[in-house]
């Protein structure tokens, strides 16, 4: 069963952090015995303690999941049986917080899986302190340490059995020892088992509502990774702006595009992907047009798409665009010609059709939401007198600049 690996060094760091939490946050006075721990060191140790505490919590949850799943497959009792959660113990250094989390998780598991045939009942006497006096002295103990109290609790609650859950840290593993006893003065054990966390993998993070075996949980995780599908449907909302030359008499308004299409990843790692989309733009009384676009994307951050962190892609693409409207004259190769004069006389809007290629970067989160920026070159309009350039490399001019927000389905 996969678990979180907690090394001996981590346990040592945790122990040091616990001591640091009790240590003063400022340097000791000169001449005082003991180590000097400043505020930065104490904060770092406390951070490490918190990280380790979270790992141990996940380990404890996974051990409980495995225990209750086993009970769903092989119930302890033939019929529904009331039981008392008599005691939960955790390593002293982990405090009562983990104990409360374990109690809540175990209760949720039992309530959501009635096939275990366990019915948890309340037992306030079990956790209360009991004082017993006799000829040999006075004893102060919890109720679950007193057979008489447990027997009385059984009569009050209708339960005849109690569950004890003990967690212990042994080396690099967390061990769960579970036992079920009958509530008689002898407290005979009717069931006992021990489960230990492995050190080869993280917890399986199974659902409280639908427990499955460790093998099935691992299979679900792999299927979630492998069957993500290589095909996605991206929707782009973008804006393109084109540079104008200083001598131009017209300046184009920004073109806002709505695009939709398909994207295909070449592998499950999604290192390479290709996409095709079509788009439409419209600005009342100014311009409207359509565009067809294709892209190739390459992952720059890592050897596979991350499930938790944003991914940065480089992309290269080409497009064909056709626009008409008052500001489409920006893309005219000639300032004035007979065709444009005749079209204006007939009331026909000027139209421009051109090809372009672009390159840029896209930051995508979990392959669902992305933002990108790119430069666009219009080689077929290199002689357009009204067009300027944002970047001129000599052998190529980038006359357009764009930005997009993407939503993938």
Can you describe what's shown?
The protein is of the alpha+beta class. 25% of the residues lie in helices and 37% in strands. It is built from seven helices and 18 strands. The chain has an eight-stranded antiparallel β-barrel. Strand 10 (255-265) and strand 11 (272-283) form a beta hairpin. Helix 1 crosses helix 2. The longest helix has 35 residues, at 39-73. The radius of gyration is 35 Å and the shape is elongated. The two termini are 34 Å apart.
Distance between the termini: 34 Å
Portion in helices: 25-40%
Beta content? 35-45%
Q: Strand pairing plus helix content: what structural class? A: alpha+beta
Low-confidence stretches: 1-14, 16-32
Number of strands: 18
Largest sheet: 8 strands, antiparallel, barrel
Helix segment tally:
7
Top keywords for this entry?
409 residues; alpha+beta; 8-stranded antiparallel barrel; 5-stranded mixed sheet; 7 helices; 18 strands; 37% strand; disordered N terminus
Write a compact overview of the structure shown.
The protein contains 7 helices and 18 strands. It has helices at 8-22, 39-73, 95-112, 124-127, 147-157, 214-226, 338-345; strands at residues 81-89, 118-121, 129-134, 137-142, 161-170, 173-182, 189-196, 231-232, 234-242, 255-265, 272-283, 287-299, 311-325, 351-365, 369-377, 391-392, 397-398, 400-408.
